[in-house]
Design brief:
The structure holds two protein chains of two kinds. Chain A is mostly beta strands. Helix content of chain A is about 0%, strand content about 55%. Chain A contains no helices and eleven strands. In chain A, strands 2, 4, 5, 6, 9, 10 and 11 form a seven-stranded mixed β-sheet that branches. A four-stranded antiparallel β-sheet of chain A has the order 1-3-8-7, with no helix packed on it. In chain A, a hairpin with a 5-residue loop joins β7 and β8. The termini of chain A are far apart. In chain A, about 35% of the residues are buried. Chain B has no helices and twelve strands. In chain B, strands 2, 5, 6, 10, 11 and 12 form a six-stranded mixed β-sheet that branches. A four-stranded antiparallel β-sheet of chain B has the order 3-9-8-7, with no helix packed on it. Chain B is globular. The chains are: A mainly beta, B mainly beta. Chains A and B meet through β4, β5, β9 and β10 of A and β5, β6, β10 and β11 of B.
């Protein structure tokens, strides 16, 4: 059972380059999230999706775009990478927002360095 | 908007000693509360969750947490820690009101267990 899979696991970008991070989940979850993790700042929400074809901004959305064309995939794009986007990126998914199955499941993370 | 405060960025403790990791949340409405653990270079795993009912919640690996509505706290405890508990611990909250789609994390507490 794969759960939440993130691709790639590591990447080094030059300033100004673009890239897309892929998150795939095989649990038929409706809700998906992208977070970034920086030392001393915990996890901050970048964007999230409440279903196929829908996305919404989190607390730190600037410089990122997302798409949810298929229910199982949630893509995070960096159009023009900046050193401030050096971080570890985590994708998460949730089955439900209420009740017993509301916890989030996380991928293993993508470590991105922008030079 | 909901928020989470983890008062201690790092907690050193000796093996077999008890430990408490503190978490306070800010919300004027009902909440769900979670504790996650992150081992080095891995994603986050759920330790335990509070949805409703009994305020004492038991999780995996011998951890438990107590929900205190009047103190708006959800502190994590373990009576006797092991070296293998060395990890970073995150408290998270989701409110049952506006913004309920979001899962908001604290800044994390690094637990360092030494022999």
């Amino acid at each position: 059972n794969a759960g939440v899979t993130q691709t790639p696991k590591f990447r080094v970008l030059k300033t100004g380059q673009s890239m897309t991070l892929l998150c795939a989940q095989d649990m038929n979850h409706e809700y998906m999230y992208w977070y970034r993790q920086d030392p001393g700042m915990g996890l901050r929400l970048i964007h999230y999706s409440v279903g196929e074809g829908t996305t919404a901004k989190g607390e730190v959305p600037d410089g990122y775009n997302v798409s949810r064309l298929k229910k199982q995939n949630f893509l995070l794009g960096l159009e023009s990478a900046a050193p401030s986007q050096t971080s570890v990126y985590f994708c998460a998914s949730r089955l439900a927002l209420f009740g017993q199955n509301t916890e989030a499941f996380f991928g293993q993370g993508t470590r991105l360095t922008v030079v | 908007a909901q928020s989470v405060t983890q008062l201690d960025s790092q907690v050193p403790v000796f093996e077999e000693a008890p430990v408490e990791l503190r978490c306070n949340y800010s919300s004027s409405v009902s909440v769900y509360l979670f504790w996650y653990v992150q081992y080095p270079n891995q994603g986050l795993q759920l330790l335990l969750k509070y949805l409703s009912g009994s305020t004492l919640v038991k999780g995996i690996n011998g951890f438990e947490a107590e929900f205190n509505k009047s103190q708006t706290s959800f502190h994590l405890r373990k009576p006797s820690v092991h070296i293998s508990d060395t990890a970073e611990y995150f408290c998270a909250v989701t409110t049952l009101s506006t913004g309920f789609q979001k899962l908001v994390f604290g800044t994390g507490t690094r637990l360092l267990v030494s022999p």
